[in-house]
Amino acid sequence: MVCRNQLLFCIFVSCLCFSQQTITFESSPDSQVLTTQIPGLTFTNAKAIHAGITLNEIDFPAKSGTVAAVDRRGPISIDFDRPAGSFSAFLTHTKRVTLSAYDPTGKLLGTTASPTNRNSAPSPDPGATHNELIEIRADRIARIVLAADPGGSSFVIDDIAFADYIEKPTFSVSPERVTFEYALTLPPPPPERIFIDAEPNANYTSESTARWVRVSPATGPAGGRVLIAFDVSQLPAPGNHQATVTFRSGGAARTVVVILRLAAAPVLYGTPSELTFAVTRGGPRPPPQAILVGSRNVNQLFSATASTG
Q1: pLDDT per position as a tens digit, 26-75
Q2: Other C-beta atoms lying within 10 Å of the C-beta of residue 260
Q3: Of 60, 87, 92, 280, which one is least surrounded by beta carbons within 10 A?
């Protein structure tokens, strides 16, 4: 078996990269029953056939070279040592061919079929040509089955291609919203904790839409705690404000909404501003009087001291 080339693909949806191999059968002897000759693959019901010997290259030409594989005594199955993410082949056939993919538990992942019922001479379907492409993509393909005539000898395949399946990376950020309440001149509240997780472990970056938001650390390895706070030197005018922090890792992005309820400097007041007690020496103690203590702009703790004059 000859591995003709290796290509590197990248699926940008999840930044999933894999190496695709395209296989021909040029090094197989004529009439060799294919089993485990190709590393990583196990064939069932497949046999190599050579042009001019056992392959009718006029009606069933190989896609490349002079050797193809025929379905021998039934559907061709190929088992993968490692799960695949895609499979394709070029085929010439006398009956419509179905391609089915199964996961490691035997569950059917999907099925597709050849574009025509027959593309081989002497009576192909109108517009049909030799070596039609058939392909399927799915997560964790462990086996594929190519089936046409139950007795076999109904199609030939060449230039099969497959790509290893690699688990798509995951990236999460929690919580997705934090809120700060702050009044000017008061000590700032403590930072809020954000937890970042990624599988497999990867680095992250962060970017904020507001200058008053601070992320620490702004970049680093995912899989730990990140602190979000605000910079008192960059605060906007009092009011309600919202910003977004975007975390990115491995092509994925997650956002955290930051809410800031900013009040002006607190103003403490008491009502009434003066109390009068009438006391007779040796007489009963006068009843207590109440003062309403409040704070404008933000709730604030207070303490009281007494003085005499």
Answers
A1: 999 999 999 999 899 999 999 999 999 999 999 999 999 999 999 999 99
A2: 20
A3: 280
Average model confidence (pLDDT) for the chain?
A: 87
Of 228, 191, 192, nearest in space to 208 by CA: 228
Residue 9: band (very low, low, confident or very high) from pLDDT cuts 50, 70, 90: very low
Tokens of 43: 């064939």
User: What is the separation of C-alpha 57 from the centre of its chain, rounded to a whole number of angstroms?
Assistant: 45
Strand ranges (E), 120-250: 132-147, 155-164, 170-174, 177-183, 192-199, 203-208, 213-216, 220-221, 224-230, 239-249
Contact 134, 157 (CB under 8 A): no
Contact between 21 and 3 (Cβ < 8 Å): yes
Q: Note the pLDDT tens digit of each residue in 144-197.
A: 999 999 999 999 999 999 998 877 678 889 999 999 988 888 888 899 999 998
Using CA atoms, how far apart are residues 54 and 156, in angstroms rounded to an integer? 12
